[in-house]
Design brief:
Length: about 600
């Protein structure tokens, strides 16, 4: 028998009554009843209650020992008195009568408690992450993460994929986020980069003749932190397939995600056939390419209404004449809402940096009218036109935003979420997946007028390759796609461009010469020149998947040892200074500018 335990802290039940057992774990909680002390011992598996009377030689020790000290306890399994059972615990009908006790490790005073789930400042939680992870909810999140990854591996193998590992030390890429650079000791003055993603390598695997690849891949990007993005590293399910079209990738990913989310969540999946939403439609209807489809509110284009002579809302009319757009959100049956509800939305919009949101509510007595600050500027005919165009009804309210297209999209996307939250019309017990498809290949920088890739430069353009209108680059669509769930982008993917001549042409539109492409993507372009299959793939983020399944709003709640907002590991004091000797070995001299 193992000297530390005969059973773990979730195994014991009424079948073990009157047996002597040994358990080990952390002192989770102590309850001193004067003549009796009850303690909860916790390990990875669960909690077991132990008890001793004041005539026990270990009684005084248990009075003094601090929480989270590690104990080994041997004792007799007895039945709990009637009315004291805890049916929330697997061991809730029994307890251990302590016969012997050994302190395996003493704990100091705790900077944060483990018992209970109260909130504590993030810097304390991250500095003492090993304590934070002992808390029940955090512990469950990390166990969930492990089970999710194991499930994904098994599913991918069952779908005919093989797992391969790609390099961690690679070359710097000119596209995407900032690289983390690693100096080379053997090649002075040169640097490796940690991979932002195994993008080029997984394509090279396809070129090498392998058919279906996957990897639970670590990725490194020097980005600012967000609730759904780590500042340094993250993991993704990286996959690539040969001889496939866009729909083939969709079928694999949909099957995987459906099985995964059904396995690890009781929430309903709204549609098991994920909707395909073209990018431009998503930007019009939702103001974002990451729409939360649990939210029923839809954005409507109403610029034409403000070109009418019987609309006297001069502020918007002047903006429309100068090229601005007007879009609207209809809220159903909100005529009974107080004025404060509408004013709070308007004030919120101003706090976001917008000029506010105009609004009115449709009413009808003898004729259709509009109640609200701007209702008086619209004739009955104009209101009927708005009502018809927006599919609104009497009693509905309409919010308006006016400005440049990207400005209107930004504010109404946020307003859509804000209004739905205030109205409590988002079904929190569901998952709503969708594909965003038909991304533009290129976009124009409004400041420089330069044409840039809008998404992934290695993507295949849509249509007949021989007849693509390269002189109209902003009209070229790509086989690029995002998978979104509940407003969270889980991944981007694409069918890849496997034709070198076409790649040179597309890169030239973005300002790259053939020489530039050969230098910056030498491995890729060289490989494609020796016969490459049509191929495509995607890379759903593990962290974001687990965040959704755990019903958390921050990725740090499902990550073992995350960094803080400033990309610092407070527990390990990273990043840190290094010795001069190390810098000399790497031929590096620091030149740090003082603020």
């Amino acid at each position: 028998m193992n000297k530390f335990r005969s059973h773990n802290c979730s195994e014991l039940n009424e079948k073990h009554l009157d047996k002597n057992v040994t358990i080990s774990g952390w002192l989770h909680r102590r309850r001193d009843h004067g003549n009796l002390i009850f303690i909860d011992i916790r390990d990875h598996y669960g909690i077991t209650q132990c008890v001793t009377e004041n005539n026990n030689k270990f009684f005084s020790l248990l009075e003094k020992i601090k929480p989270e000290s590690v104990l080994k306890i041997t004792g007799k399994v007895i039945k709990r008195e009637k009315g004291t059972e805890n049916l929330d615990l697997k061991t809730g009908k029994i307890e251990i009568q302590i016969l012997s006790l050994e302190v395996l490790s003493n704990a100091k005073d705790l900077p944060i408690p483990v018992f209970g789930e109260q909130d504590y400042p993030e810097d304390i939680r991250l500095k003492y992450r090993f304590l934070d992870l002992r808390r029940e909810e955090m512990h469950k999140n990390i166990v969930l993460r492990s089970k999710v990854i194991s499930f994904i591996r098994a599913e991918m193998i069952s779908l005919g994929f093989l797992e391969y590992q790609t390099p961690i030390l690679t070359s710097s890429s000119p596209e995407g986020a900032r690289d983390f650079l690693v100096p080379s000791r053997l090649n002075p003055g040169k640097f490796y980069a940690l991979p932002q993603a195994p993008q080029q390598f997984k394509q090279l695997i396809m070129v090498s003749g392998f058919d279906k690849y996957f990897q639970i891949a670590p990725c490194f990007r020097d980005e600012d932190a967000r609730a759904d993005r780590s500042p340094g590293e993250f993991y993704q399910l990286d996959l690539e397939m040969s001889f496939v079209e866009q729909e083939d990738v969709f079928q694999v990913v949909e099957k995987l995600l459906l099985n995964l989310f059904k396995k690890f969540s009781s929430k309903k999946i709204i549609s098991e056939k994920f909707p395909r939403i073209p990018f431009r439609e998503a930007m019009l209807k939702y103001g974002t390419d990451k729409p939360d489809l649990r939210n029923p509110l839809i954005i409507q284009e109403v610029t034409n209404i403000f070109e009418r002579d019987d609309v006297k809302f001069d502020i918007f009319k002047k903006l429309v004449k100068s090229g601005s757009r007007v879009r609207a959100i209809v809220t159903k049956n909100t005529n009974n809402k107080p004025r404060s509800f509408f004013d709070s939305i308007d004030k919120w919009a101003k706090d976001q940096g917008a000029s506010g949101l105009a609004y009115f509510t449709l009413e009808k007595e003898k004729k259709i009218s509009a109640k609200g600050p701007v209702g008086k500027f619209f004739s009955e005919e104009a209101l009927i036109a708005i009502k018809t165009q927006c599919e609104a009804e009497i009693g509905d309210s309409i919010f308006f935003a006016c400005g440049k297209e990207d400005e209107v999209e930004k504010i109404l996307s946020s307003a859509r979420d804000k209004i739905a939250k205030d109205l409590e019309i988002v079904d929190q017990g569901t998952f709503a997946f969708c594909w965003i498809v038909d991304y533009p290949m290129f976009e124009k920088d409004e400041k420089t007028n330069k044409i840039n890739f809008s998404h992934n430069p290695f993507s295949m353009p849509q249509g007949d390759i021989k007849n693509i209108k390269f002189n109209n680059p902003l009209e070229i669509l790509a086989y690029q796609y995002d998978i979104v769930c509940n407003g969270v982008e889980l991944s981007s993917g694409a069918i890849r461009n496997h034709i070198p001549e076409l790649m040179y042409k597309l890169f030239s539109i973005a300002g790259y010469s053939e020489k530039d492409v050969n230098e910056k993507f030498s491995g890729m372009i060289n490989a494609l020149s020796f016969g490459a299959p049509p191929h495509g793939g995607i890379a759903p983020g593990i962290d974001r998947i687990v965040m959704l399944l755990a019903d958390k709003n921050n990725i740090r709640e499902v990550t073992l040892f995350p960094m803080n907002q400033n990309a610092q590991d407070l527990m390990m004091s990273a990043p840190s200074n290094v010795e001069d000797k190390q810098l000399k070995e790497l031929n590096i001299k620091l030149d740090i500018k003082k603020n």
